[in-house]
Amino acid sequence: MLGDELKTFLAEKADDMKAENIVTINVVDKSSVTDYMIVCTGSSKRHVSSIADNVATEAKNRGLTPLGIDGENEGEWVVLDMGDVMVHVMQQEHRELYQLEKLWS
User: What is the pLDDT of residue 32?
Assistant: First the structure.
C-alpha cells in the first residue's frame, strides 16, 4: 500500500478514533522525507495517544510497520512515520502554535 491509498487508509483510521480537523498535505515537491502529511487534533493527551495507537495498530494489522513513533508518552504531539506518509496527531494548542498546514502549504 503506497501513496494515495496509504494516505486515505491512515486518515480513515484517525477518523475512526474521532480525530478532529483531519487535513492531508501533499509535500511531494517540498520534502525529500515523505510524500504526504496528515495532521489531526485530539482533545486530550489520552485522546492524542489513543488516535496514534489506533493508527499504528491498524497499520500493523495490514502488514505495515511504522518506521518510527515519537511522543506517545507525552500525548501532546505524536508523530508516526509511515514512510510515504507522516501522521501528526496534536492537541489543539500545539497545532495552533506550530501551524504545520501553513508551513507546508
Answer: 82
